Amino acid sequence: MNITIKKCTLEDSRQLQEISYETFNDTFKDQNTPENMKAYLERAFDLKQLEKEISNISSQFFFVFFNNELAGYLKVNTNDAQSEEMGETSLEIERIYVRKQYQKHGIGKTLFIKALNIAIELDKRKIWLGVWEKNDKAIAFYERMGFVQTSAHSFYMGDEEQIDFIMTKTIQ
What CATH number does the domain containing 38 carry? Predict the structure, then answer.
């Protein structure tokens, strides 16, 4: 198994948009209305929005390849790019998305380790993320990676308010 990671640039925007639509839709379409999915996908993964995020020095995107095939991606945020105010000593994992056919191959763990290494390089004290309270598979994964639920916040899928658990891991 050959897993490689590449930092995304503006030239990757369209490919990032495509994999974002695919992975988010595959993960959440069965639990949400088509109207709310469409509204969220168009807002969150608009090409101009993604280009703005890629250009933000406090955000980083990384593609992960499995045997040279694009398998998923990671987005991390620091400073004011974090989706919640968690302070300068925190790093947010905003997205770990893996295509269905590449799940159960260690790719999520590889992306988590990449985020952890970035946090250590940046001298962060904790990593945190938001995960939908109904996404049992992701919650179990993050618990295996050492995260604990510390709070919750609202997340809007179109016009529907949902609850995301805030999970945190302290870096020693």
Answer: 3.40.630.30
Q: What are phi and psi of 96, to 5 degrees?
A: -125, 105
Token couple for 69 = 């095939």
**26 lies in which domain range?**
3-124
Question: Using one digit for the tens of pLDDT, what is the confidence trace for 46-84?
Answer: 999 999 999 999 999 999 999 999 999 999 999 999 998
pTM, entire model: 0.94
Q: Does the pLDDT value for residue 1 go beyond 80?
A: no
Q: How far is residue 34's CA from residue 53's CA, in Å, rounded to a whole number?
A: 25
How is the chain split among helix, strand and coil, in percent rounded to 5?
Answer: 40, 35, 25
Based on the residue annotation, tell me whether 40 is a catalytic residue of this protein. no
Q: Which of 40, 73, 97, 142 is catalytic?
A: 142
